[in-house]
Design brief:
This protein has about 270 residues and is an alpha/beta fold. It is built from 10 helices and 7 strands. About 5% of the residues have low confidence.
């Protein structure tokens, strides 16, 4: 399953103007359940954060989280990094266009980060599942944080987070729905051990994407992507498709954020230095 080409295609469609880019961010905020969970955690963290805050958006992608933080708190300084040069160039152009003075985007390899006690928060969304040397990267995050700083991670779990299931492993060469992942996902105990080995003194990890989130993800993301992989002509049908599923996805997302889950296909983790 090729996920990145679809993301690039969508990015090109919505990057034609600042207005369409903002609309794209708004749609991601509403449809992507992980955004709901991240914003919930950010609201809690913000209550105790000061005005002179520095944040590292590690693996910034389209830049939607950097945009959200920079708009909510123009006094914060945000460094957003990603290994993909075209995405960094794209984000720099957009943020320059909207005159966001508190944001900077740079190309960076997370395995080679060399910051020392600089940031109050490191945000890492849908990144760790792409990195083989995850212990090294977690150690780099720890070093980059100030004492008392927090790392916030959202990543797939080993409960089907990459849409890989037990029967898939019986088939030689089988891959998940998103085949760019280097691991199927994390067990909570596995991620907790790696965070503590990296030096973090306190961790809080729980499941996201419980039963409401699983349904929402299939309706709002998986099925549309499958259609677009079959043919780009489905771009024309997407607005009509989302008119039908959008209200249901909103309800399911709200339920997933409100409920506690004994299992789920996603994990959200907080760790403090």
């Amino acid at each position: 399953m090729q996920y990145d080409p679809i993301k690039r295609s969508l990015g090109k469609v919505f990057n034609r103007s600042a207005l369409s880019r903002k609309l794209f961010y708004r749609l991601l905020d509403l449809l992507l359940l992980r955004t709901w969970h991240i914003k919930k955690q950010m609201r809690e963290w913000t209550k105790k954060a000061g005005s002179t805050v520095e944040i590292l958006d590690a693996g910034s992608g389209f830049g939607q989280y950097t945009y959200f933080m920079s708009q909510q708190h123009p006094e914060w300084k945000i460094l957003a990094v990603d290994v993909k040069e075209e995405q960094i160039e794209d984000c720099n152009q957009f943020f320059s266009r909207i005159s966001a003075k508190n944001v900077r985007f740079e190309v960076a390899d997370l395995t080679k980060l060399n910051f020392n006690q600089r940031f109050d928060l490191v945000l890492c969304v849908d990144v760790m599942e792409h990195i083989e040397e995850d212990r090294l990267v977690l150690s780099n995050y720890f070093n980059a944080l100030k004492p008392g700083g927090m790392l916030l991670i959202s990543t797939p779990s080993d409960q089907g987070g990459s849409d890989v299931h037990e029967h898939d492993h019986a088939e030689e060469g089988a891959v998940g729905f998103i085949d760019e992942h280097v691991r199927d996902g994390y067990a909570i105990s596995d991620l907790d051990e790696k965070l503590r080995t990296a030096g973090f003194s306190k961790t809080e990890i729980h499941y996201q994407y419980g039963w409401p989130g699983k349904i929402s993800w299939k309706l709002s993301m998986k099925y549309p992507i499958l259609m677009l992989n079959a043919s780009r002509l489905f771009f024309v049908l997407l607005p009509f498709y989302y008119l039908l599923v959008f209200p249901m996805s909103l309800v399911l997302n709200a339920l997933d954020v409100k409920l506690k889950h004994n299992t789920g296909t996603g994990i959200i983790a907080r760790a403090w230095k």
